[in-house]
Fold these 2 entries.
Entry 1:
Amino acid sequence: MTTPIITKATNILREGGLVAFPTETVYGLGADAANPDALQRIFAAKERPYNHPLIVHISAIKNLNDWAREVPETAIKLAHAFWPGPLTLILKKQPHVSDLITSGQDTIGLRIPKHPVALQLLQAFAGGIAAPSANRFTHISPTTAMAVQEELGGKIDLILEGGLCEVGLESTIIDVTRETPVILRPGMISAQAISALLGMQVALAASEAEIRAPGMHHLHYAPNTAAALIAKDEVSSFLQINKDPVAIVIYSEMNMPEIPNVHWVKLSDKPAQYAHDIYQSLRSLDHQQFKRILIERVPDTTEWDAIRDRLLKATGGRK
Ligand code: TXA
Ligand code: MG
C-alpha cells in the first residue's frame, strides 16, 4: 500500500520537482534521474558544480541493467551481499544516461538504499532517483529531516521524515569497471569486508584530502566553525594556552577538566556508533558560538577509514 505522503512525493518527482528523503547513510536530495530539468534543479539547490556526478538510487538488482550497460560478476556479488545497504557501485553507463548524472564520464554510480521510506518511494516511483546528499555544497551531510530543512529549506518541494540515519556517513563507493575493484570513497562497508567477499585484495584510492598539497585544502563535509584535528597527547598543552571558546570532540578515555571556555563532547570508541553520531554532533556544535572545534584524531586502523577520511575533509587536515 502506498501512503498519501509517498503518493505526493512520487507526483512531485514525476513533475520534475525535488524530494529530500531519508536513507540509512544520510538524507538524499532526490530528482527523477531521467529528467534533465529536474537534475538541473539539484545542482541549483545545492549550489553544486557540474563536475560532481550524482548517484542513482534504484529499488531492485534487476534494474541495474536499465542504467549500466555492463554488469560484471564482482558487481553482482557485491549487490547480492550488501544491497539494500551503504554501498555504491560504479559501472559503465547506458547510452541514455544524462551527462548531468555522470559529469560527462562513461560511468554511473548506483545503489539500493536500506531505509523503508526510501524503498517505498523508489517502488512507488518505479524509476531511478538521482540523489546527492541533501546539503549545500561542501557542508556536512544531513542525518535528520531537520538538518535538511536547515540546509535546503525553501529550495525543495518536500522533505520526507525518516528519523535519524542509522549509519550516519555516506556510502562506500567502489569502482567495479576495472579488473581489480578500487574503493573511491571509504564507508562503513570496509575494504576488508569487500576483499573477504570477493576473495581478492581491494585497495582504497588515496584520499584527495591526503594527497592534496598543504595549503591547497578544499573543505568538504565541513562545519561552518573552523575545525581542526588534535592528537590525544596534544590536548593538555593546548588547554594551557587556549583562551577561546572551543569544543573538543574526543573518543578515547582522557581527563576532561571543567575549564571555562572548553566544552567537551565524548563520542563512542566504537566506529559504528561514532559514525552514527559525528555529523549530528558537529552540526549541533556549529549552532553554538565556538571559535574552533577540535577533533581528536581517530585510530589508523581500517575500521576507522571512512571516519578518518571525513574528518580530514572536514578539517582540511588542519592541526
Ligand atoms: O550515502 C550516499 O552515497 C548518499 C545517499 C543520499 O545515497 N549520497 C551521496 O551523494 O553521498 P553525494 O552526491 O553527496 O556523493 C556522491 C559521490 C560524489 O563524490 C561523486 O563524485 C561520486 O559519488 N560519484 C558519483 N558518480 C560517480 C561516477 N560515475 N564516478 C566516480 N564517482 C562518482
Ligand atoms: Mg555529498
Note: The mean pLDDT is 95.
Entry 2:
Amino acid sequence: MATKPSSRQSASKTPIDSLMKESRLFKPSAAFTKQANAGSSSIYKEAEADPVKFWEQMAEELVWKKKWNKPLEWKAPDAKWFVGGTLNVTESCLDRHVLVNGTTRRNKAALIWEGEPGDRRVLTYYDLFRQVNKFANVLKKFGIGKGDVVAIYLPMIPELVIAALACARIGAIHSVVFGGFSPESLRDRINDAQAKLLITADGGYRRGQIIPLKHDADVALMDCPSIENVIIVKRGEFLLRVKEGRDHWYHRHMQEADPWCQPEYMDSEDPLFILYTSGTTGKPKGIMHTCGGYMTGVHATTKLVFDLKDTDVFWCTADVGWVTGHSYVVYGPLSNGATQVIYEGAPDWPDQDRFWQIVEENAVSVFYTAPTAIRAFMKWGRQWPDKHDLSSLRLLGSVGEPINPEAWVWYNDVIGHGRCPIVDTWWQTETGHIMITPLPGLIATKPGSATRPFPGITAAILDENGKEIKEGGGYLAITKPWPGMLRGIWGDRQRMIDTYWSKWPGIYFPGDGSKIDTDKYFWILGRVDDVINTAGHRISTMEVESALVEHPVVAEAAVVGIPHELKGECLVAFVTMRSGMNQDERLLGQLKDHVTRKIGALAKPEKIIFTADLPKTRSGKIMRRLLRDVAQGKVMGDTTTLSDPDIMKKIKRHYEED
Ligand code: WTA
C-alpha cells in the first residue's frame, strides 16, 4: 500500500502559490485502491449525476424506524433531508452491533481509552450499549426528555461519549462545552441554550496538572438559573464541594439504573445537538444539527474517507468538545462499528513520544490529527516517532486548518513511511461532516491541497459577485444543499441568514478563501473574516477584544491573527490604556491571565502591545488590516483613510521595540 511521489522534490519551505505550479503528485497504490471502500471512480460520476440519490443510498446504511418519503426539500436557506423518516441514531451506533442476530461486534472493542496518567479501560460494544442505556435512564430519572438541552463539560473519558449517546437515546439535545473553556464561557453557553442539566467531572488530567472542572462549573453555575441538576463523574480523588439536592454522583445512579432504555424515535429533522463555535462577533453561535441528515453525512464520510474496516483501529485525536470529536469520535466510527482509541491528555506527556507509544501499543491503523500537532511533532524531532513501531498505520488524516506542504511531506515520510495515503479534510462545525477531501484509493494527492469535494458535494470558487473562478483564488462556496448542513443558529435565525446565506443567493458561504488549480484541486487558504484558526481552534478576534476591554485598565483593544510557526496562526493584541496606568510586564501578564479567565487558555494572545492610540478610519472603524501588517513586519498598507496617519508610525516603532 504505497503512496509514492511521481516526481520527488525536496521539502523546502514553499508557499502555496509556487507549490500549485509544481507537479508533485502522490498516487494511491493499486493495492490500496483494490481494498478501498471507495475503489472505483464511478462513485464520483454517479454522485455528480444525481447527488440526492447518492445521499439516499448513504442513508440506507443507517437504521431507520420509518423510511423517509421524500429525500430533500430545499428552499434556501432551509433544507429538510429524508423528510418523514424517523430514527434513533443510537440504534445505528450501538443496537445493530449488539442486538442483531449474527453480529460479530458484540464483544468487539468499541473504545480503547487511555488516561493521561497511564490508566486504561476497554469498552466493548456490549459494554458501551449497556452504559449508554443505563445513563439514558438516569437522565430520565432527573426529568430529562425529548427536546431538553443537556450541557456536557467533561474531560476526554469514556463517559463523555456515553453522555452524548445517552442524550441521543432519549431525544435530548446535547451541548458539549470543551473542558478547556473558562467558567464564563461555560456559563454563557448554558444560558444561551437554557440547558436543564449539566454533566461534569470532579477533574481531568492535562500535562500532569489537574483540570478542576467541577470547581469551574460551580463558578459558572452561580449564574445559570436554568440548571436544575448536576451529575458528577468521578475521574480521580479530587476535592470538591457537593451541593446537596443539586449535585449527584454518576456512579451511584448508574449502579441502580436499568440496562435497557427504549429509544425515542425522532423525526429525521429533529435536533441531535448544538455545538457552539466562534463567529465574527463576540457572541458564540450555537450551531444546530439534526438526526437524519447529519448522521448520514458522518456515516458515509467515515466509511469512505477513513476507509474503515472491522480490522482497523481508528484514532481521531480531537477532543469531543469540538465538532471533529462529535463526528469522528462519537457518531461516525460507532455507526461504522469501528474500534477506536481515545486519549485524555497531552501529546508530550510524560514525553514527546506519547502519541507514538499509543499508536504502537494499540496497533492504530488509521490516524487523524491536526496540522498544529504535526508541526509540533516536527519541531520535537523524528527521534520520537522513530523509537516506535508505526508499521500498523495504513492511512493518515489532517483537519482543522491548512496544512503547509512541509508538514504534509514530513507526515508522509516520518509517520507514514511513504506507505500511507494522506487525507487532508476540509470542513466546519457548520458543515457537520467532511466536505473537501481526497478519497484515499481514488485521488492522487498534492501536499497542501484538500483536493476535491466529497461525492455528493458541490463546491466552487466565487468572486464577490458570485461569478465562478475556474482557475485562481476567491471565496470558497458550497453551491448545493448537503445532508449535514447546519439547520440554524440556536435562537438566532437572522444571524444564520446574515452569516452564511446573504453573500450570494441560495449559496452557502463558509468564510474561507481558496484557490483552485487546473486539475480542479482546492487549496484552502484560511478565513477571510475576523475568525482565526489557532492551534486548530476557532477563535473570534472580537471575542478576545471584548474580553480585554472588560479589564479595568484597558480603554480599547484590537486583536489580529498572524502566521505562527506551530499554531498556524496566533493572536496579537494592540491595547490602549486608561490614563495614568503603568504599562509594565506585570500588567502584560495580568491581561493575558484575564483573557484566559474570560475565555480559556486557547484564546490567550501571544503578544500584547500597548499603544497610545489605534488606527481608525475617519468614521471610527479600527483598521485591523494595518495592524496585521505591522504585526507581521510587512510594509504598511494604504493609510490614506486614517484619521491620524502618523499613528501607524508610532505603533510600528513601538511594536519593533517590543
Ligand atoms: C479551517 C473543524 C484548511 C477552515 C473541522 C474552516 C481547514 C475552519 C481545514 C472550521 C483544512 C478546517 N484545510 N482549513 N483541511 N479544516 N479548516 O468549525 O478555516 O472548528 O472554516 O471545524 O477550520 O473550523 P471548525
Note: The domain at 535-657 is CATH 3.30.300.30 (GMP Synthetase; Chain A, domain 3).
